[in-house]
Amino acid sequence: MTDRYVALLRGINVGTAKALAMSELTSVYESLGLTDVRTLLRSGNVVFDSDGPVDAATLSRATEAATGVSSDVVLLTADRFRAVAAANPLADVIDDPSRAIVCFLDGPLDAAAVAAPSAESLAPERLALGDSAIYQWCPDGISKSKVPPRFFTSLGAVATGRNVRTVEKLLAMLDD
Length: 176
What we know:
Elements: E1 3-9, H1 22-31, E2 35-40, E3 45-50, H2 56-67, E4 73-77, H3 78-86, E5 100-105, H4 119-122, E6 126-129, E7 133-137, H5 149-153, E8 159-163, H6 164-175
Antiparallel strand pairs: 1-3, 1-4, 2-3, 5-7, 5-8, 6-7
Helix pairs in contact: 1-2, 3-6
Protein backbone atom coordinates (compact mmCIF):
# COMPACT_ATOMS: atom_id res chain seq x y z
CA MET A 1 0.00 0.00 0.00
CA THR A 2 1.28 3.44 -0.93
CA ASP A 3 1.09 6.24 1.58
CA ARG A 4 1.52 9.96 0.91
CA TYR A 5 3.64 12.19 3.17
CA VAL A 6 4.66 15.79 3.68
CA ALA A 7 8.23 16.49 4.81
CA LEU A 8 9.01 19.98 6.10
CA LEU A 9 12.70 20.76 6.37
CA ARG A 10 13.64 23.31 8.98
CA GLY A 11 15.65 26.38 7.99
CA ILE A 12 16.31 25.55 4.33
CA ASN A 13 17.22 28.49 2.06
CA VAL A 14 16.55 31.15 4.67
CA GLY A 15 18.73 33.97 3.41
CA THR A 16 22.04 32.38 2.46
CA ALA A 17 21.93 29.72 5.18
CA LYS A 18 21.53 26.05 4.31
CA ALA A 19 21.32 26.60 0.57
CA LEU A 20 19.77 23.58 -1.08
CA ALA A 21 18.39 23.27 -4.59
CA MET A 22 15.01 21.58 -4.66
CA SER A 23 16.19 19.42 -7.57
CA GLU A 24 18.91 18.03 -5.26
CA LEU A 25 16.36 17.38 -2.54
CA THR A 26 14.11 15.59 -5.02
CA SER A 27 17.04 13.41 -6.10
CA VAL A 28 17.84 12.50 -2.48
CA TYR A 29 14.26 11.43 -1.80
CA GLU A 30 14.05 9.47 -5.04
CA SER A 31 17.34 7.69 -4.16
CA LEU A 32 15.56 6.39 -1.05
CA GLY A 33 12.92 4.73 -3.23
CA LEU A 34 10.29 7.39 -2.60
CA THR A 35 7.99 8.14 -5.53
CA ASP A 36 6.03 11.05 -6.97
CA VAL A 37 8.44 13.39 -5.17
CA ARG A 38 7.44 17.03 -5.57
CA THR A 39 8.74 20.15 -3.88
CA LEU A 40 7.07 23.49 -3.26
CA LEU A 41 8.94 26.78 -3.20
CA ARG A 42 12.57 26.82 -2.01
CA SER A 43 11.90 26.36 1.68
CA GLY A 44 12.07 22.59 2.00
CA ASN A 45 8.49 21.46 1.44
CA VAL A 46 8.28 17.97 -0.04
CA VAL A 47 5.26 15.83 -0.90
CA PHE A 48 5.98 12.20 -1.77
CA ASP A 49 4.64 8.67 -1.78
CA SER A 50 6.15 5.59 -0.16
CA ASP A 51 5.34 1.90 -0.23
CA GLY A 52 7.08 1.33 3.10
CA PRO A 53 7.82 3.00 6.39
CA VAL A 54 9.55 6.38 6.37
CA ASP A 55 11.06 8.32 9.25
CA ALA A 56 12.28 11.87 9.64
CA ALA A 57 15.75 10.90 10.88
CA THR A 58 16.45 8.87 7.74
CA LEU A 59 15.35 11.75 5.52
CA SER A 60 17.54 14.18 7.46
CA ARG A 61 20.61 11.91 7.38
CA ALA A 62 20.23 11.14 3.67
CA THR A 63 19.87 14.82 2.81
CA GLU A 64 22.97 15.75 4.79
CA ALA A 65 25.01 12.85 3.36
CA ALA A 66 24.12 13.75 -0.22
CA THR A 67 24.18 17.55 -0.04
CA GLY A 68 26.15 18.54 3.06
CA VAL A 69 23.11 20.46 4.33
CA SER A 70 21.95 19.54 7.82
CA SER A 71 18.29 20.11 8.57
CA ASP A 72 15.76 18.69 10.97
CA VAL A 73 12.68 17.27 9.29
CA VAL A 74 9.08 17.30 10.49
CA LEU A 75 7.38 14.38 8.75
CA LEU A 76 3.60 14.03 8.59
CA THR A 77 1.31 11.61 6.83
CA ALA A 78 -1.04 13.28 4.39
CA ASP A 79 -3.94 12.65 6.75
CA ARG A 80 -2.07 14.14 9.71
CA PHE A 81 -1.04 17.21 7.69
CA ARG A 82 -4.67 17.74 6.64
CA ALA A 83 -5.85 17.35 10.24
CA VAL A 84 -3.33 19.86 11.61
CA ALA A 85 -4.27 22.37 8.89
CA ALA A 86 -7.99 21.89 9.51
CA ALA A 87 -7.61 22.26 13.29
CA ASN A 88 -6.42 25.88 13.04
CA PRO A 89 -8.40 27.64 15.79
CA LEU A 90 -7.50 31.03 14.33
CA ALA A 91 -8.94 30.34 10.88
CA ASP A 92 -11.91 32.64 11.47
CA VAL A 93 -9.70 35.69 12.16
CA ILE A 94 -7.19 35.20 9.32
CA ASP A 95 -7.88 37.58 6.46
CA ASP A 96 -4.44 37.30 4.83
CA PRO A 97 -2.93 33.79 4.72
CA SER A 98 0.56 35.22 4.23
CA ARG A 99 0.34 36.73 7.75
CA ALA A 100 -0.61 33.53 9.52
CA ILE A 101 1.69 30.68 10.49
CA VAL A 102 1.23 27.03 11.30
CA CYS A 103 4.24 25.86 13.24
CA PHE A 104 4.36 22.09 12.80
CA LEU A 105 5.94 20.02 15.58
CA ASP A 106 7.54 16.61 15.32
CA GLY A 107 5.45 15.27 18.19
CA PRO A 108 2.62 16.04 20.56
CA LEU A 109 2.61 19.26 22.54
CA ASP A 110 1.86 19.30 26.25
CA ALA A 111 0.08 22.66 26.30
CA ALA A 112 -0.06 22.65 30.10
CA ALA A 113 3.75 22.54 30.25
CA VAL A 114 4.29 25.36 27.75
CA ALA A 115 4.89 28.90 28.98
CA ALA A 116 3.20 30.78 26.15
CA PRO A 117 3.41 34.57 26.00
CA SER A 118 0.31 36.29 27.36
CA ALA A 119 -2.41 37.43 24.99
CA GLU A 120 -1.94 40.98 26.30
CA SER A 121 1.77 41.02 25.48
CA LEU A 122 1.10 39.85 21.92
CA ALA A 123 -1.96 41.92 20.97
CA PRO A 124 -3.03 42.36 18.25
CA GLU A 125 -1.28 39.09 17.43
CA ARG A 126 -2.89 35.81 18.36
CA LEU A 127 -1.22 32.54 19.36
CA ALA A 128 -3.00 29.23 19.87
CA LEU A 129 -1.56 25.89 20.95
CA GLY A 130 -2.72 22.73 19.23
CA ASP A 131 -1.90 19.14 19.99
CA SER A 132 1.03 19.04 17.54
CA ALA A 133 1.14 22.56 16.14
CA ILE A 134 1.20 26.19 17.15
CA TYR A 135 -0.97 28.59 15.22
CA GLN A 136 -0.10 32.25 14.93
CA TRP A 137 -1.89 35.24 13.43
CA CYS A 138 0.32 38.27 12.78
CA PRO A 139 -1.88 41.09 11.44
CA ASP A 140 1.09 43.48 11.42
CA GLY A 141 3.23 40.99 9.46
CA ILE A 142 5.27 37.96 10.42
CA SER A 143 8.51 39.93 10.53
CA LYS A 144 7.00 42.13 13.26
CA SER A 145 5.88 39.24 15.46
CA LYS A 146 6.06 39.84 19.20
CA VAL A 147 6.51 36.15 20.02
CA PRO A 148 10.07 35.75 21.32
CA PRO A 149 12.12 33.20 19.32
CA ARG A 150 13.07 31.47 22.58
CA PHE A 151 9.42 30.46 22.95
CA PHE A 152 9.73 28.11 19.97
CA THR A 153 13.11 26.76 21.07
CA SER A 154 11.72 26.06 24.54
CA LEU A 155 9.14 23.60 23.23
CA GLY A 156 11.49 20.62 23.34
CA ALA A 157 10.39 19.55 19.86
CA VAL A 158 11.53 20.12 16.31
CA ALA A 159 9.35 22.97 15.09
CA THR A 160 9.09 24.52 11.66
CA GLY A 161 6.61 27.12 10.50
CA ARG A 162 4.84 27.64 7.21
CA ASN A 163 2.51 30.46 6.35
CA VAL A 164 -1.08 29.47 5.72
CA ARG A 165 -0.76 30.24 2.01
CA THR A 166 2.00 27.61 1.76
CA VAL A 167 -0.07 25.18 3.83
CA GLU A 168 -2.94 25.66 1.37
CA LYS A 169 -0.64 24.96 -1.58
CA LEU A 170 0.66 21.80 0.10
CA LEU A 171 -2.92 20.67 0.71
CA ALA A 172 -3.62 21.13 -3.01
CA MET A 173 -0.52 19.08 -3.86
CA LEU A 174 -1.73 16.27 -1.61
CA ASP A 175 -4.94 16.12 -3.62
CA ASP A 176 -3.19 16.04 -7.04
